[in-house]
Amino acid sequence: MTDVLEAGSAPAAQDSTQGSTRDRREDGAATWWRQAVVYQVYPRSFADADGDGLGDLAGVTAHVPHLARLGVDAVWLSPFYPSQLADGGYDVDDHRAVDPRLGTLEQFDEMVAALHGAGIKVVVDIVPNHSSDQHRWFREALAAAPGSPERDRYVFARGRGERGELPPSDWTAVFGGPAWEHVGDGEWYLHMFAPEQPDWNWANREVRDDFLRTLRFWADRGVDGFRVDVAHALAKDMSLPLPTAAELAADDLPDGAHRLTDRDEVHEIYREWRELFDSYDPPRTAVAEAWVPAHRRARYASPEGLGQAFNFDLLQADPDAATFRRIVDDNLRLARESGASSTWVLSNHDVVRHATRYALPAGTDLRTWLLSGGTDPAPDLARGLRLARAATAFVLALPGSAYLYQGEELGLPEVADLPADVLQDPTWVRSAGEDKGRDGCRVPLPWSAAAPALGFSSGTPHLPQPERFAGLAADVQEGDPSSTLSFYREALAVRRRLRAEEELTWVDGTGDGVVAFTRPGGWTCVTNLGDEGVELPGGTVVLTSGPLDGRTLPPATTAWLVTGTAAR
Fold first, then answer.
1. Helix axis angle, 484-498 relative to 381-397, nearest 10°?
2. What are the b/e assignments for 260-283, b being 16+ CB within 10 Å?
3. Using CA atoms, how far apart are residues 129 and 194, in angstroms rounded to an integer?
4. Separation of alpha carbons 82 and 215, rounded Å
5. How far apart are CA 525 and CA 24, in angstroms?
6. Hey, is 555 helix, strand or coil?
7. Residue 2 has pLDDT above 90, yes or no
8. d(CA 219, CA 276)
9. What is the 3-state secondary structure (H, E, C) of 371-397?
10. Distances from the Cα of 427 to the Cα of 174, 193, 369, 405, angstroms
11. Helix, strand or coil for residue 364?
């Protein structure tokens, strides 16, 4: 066995004046997130209660029993705010309201009450990098003159050329196309994503204060935490002259000094947010979506900042034992540095589902594969699901929090063959058809095989469900002990029983393609990502991701074993 690896310890207050905050942050009610299982709900595709084909808050409330029986600790709700859906709800018209198509504030309160009544925490998505172009403040900015206070809430700049007819720079937006949009008076506004998503100016005090009001609005309604979208991009240096796209790409500035992302001053914003979070009892939590180099992630996850940050390393990796072990080593070290716990993610609303990624040969270009309609290369979906279940059991055994994406408990594959005329992701249009986008992982869930729209809605779903989803419907899997749904339920129940201190010890000498570790209390996890079966160590098997061959662990399978008192 090798050295014991520990995750970060619970954060402590900075001085004696914060004693009560320190005590609250170290008790169980305040640290629930450290080893929580968090289930991501993409509301528009989860369940539709009113029959308009779009999932809604009442649909979430109706399925709280499913979430409770699954055994999750929290639900993370992707945006449910008023939106024109230029980017799946991440173009927000009003950050302190509910989209009328998804419900009302009263229905939001009912959903929170139902989840809390089932012992499930509530985390909501906050989108602070941009608003939608329908936000009241942006409409005021367009109606106001250059240099006005209204325009200063956003990132406006004078265009190049005699009349400002050329964009201020040649930057490209994340979704393709130019990052600047002309407003007709010589000025342009910045949108690092879609044109319908103008970027806020976070150097403006009014913007900062308004977001503090937004955070307090939802915290006062019982929200337990926040997932912070594009957390790395709020602070920007727009001083002239603006660099070209080539200069940005070749930028050799030191860490924290890039013009557009991961600037050091972004943490000034999050320190203010932390003060607000800590004013609640228990303190509110937050997790950063921060696409930054690994060594920069700890600052977002610090006790003085958001408290936790996503690591997407496993999500981006092929299923390989040595790679998985290195990723875990690296991220437990980062957790120690930040004082947070690590986060483990295999799927979410932005990526091809991992049951399908693992069904493809290692190194497959997923963008090209999606453009082929999911046929080139042909996926081995049975193998993909076996590996997905094995990887999920590996992740759930790790110290830290695990984030699940809706439908993975049903073993749903990516829907790669959606026709072009139903695609909603802006990347499809903005890339001129070179990037099919993310709709394939956002297809509505199948709840009942025999019901219209597979139980998702009494109307026509906003994205079509493939026929193969019927065999994966929740009611089909309900009574099958070998189903993926039954596996997830059992894994979460056993995990809750075995959960202990945030540390692990690697087990060496297990053979090529095998990664194994022990957790305190006599819990051992063995994952076989090799080509041959391996003999299991001693102990009582309490969970497997697939069938065993006696005491032999087949390829693409994980087993949990316990010894001593844990076996009882």
1. 10
2. bbbbeebbebbeebbebbbeeebb
3. 12
4. 17
5. 33
6. coil
7. no
8. 10
9. HCCCCCCCCCHHHHHHHHHHHHHHHHH
10. 8, 9, 16, 21
11. coil
Cβ–Cβ under 8 Å, residues 55 and 48: yes
Cβ burial, residue 158 (10 Å; 0-12/13-18/19+) = middle
pLDDT tens per residue, range 34-60: 999 999 999 999 999 999 999 999 999
**302 CB neighbour count, 10 Å cutoff:** 22
For the chain, the helix, strand and coil percentages under 3-state DSSP, each to the nearest 5: 35, 15, 50
Cα separation, 134 vs 240, in Å, equals 29
Burial-class residue 318 by CB neighbours within 10 Å (0-12, 13-18, 19+).
Answer: middle
Strand pairing class (225-228; 121-126):
parallel
Q: How do residues 184-240 score in pLDDT, each as one tens digit?
A: 999 999 999 999 999 999 999 999 999 999 999 999 999 999 999 999 999 999 999
Whole-number Å distance between alpha carbons of 106 and 123? 17
Token pair 């830290």 in the structure block, residue: 400
Q: How far apart, in Å, do the first and last CA atoms of the chain sit?
A: 25
Indicate the pLDDT class of residue 3, thresholds 50, 70 and 90: very low
219: helix, strand or coil: helix
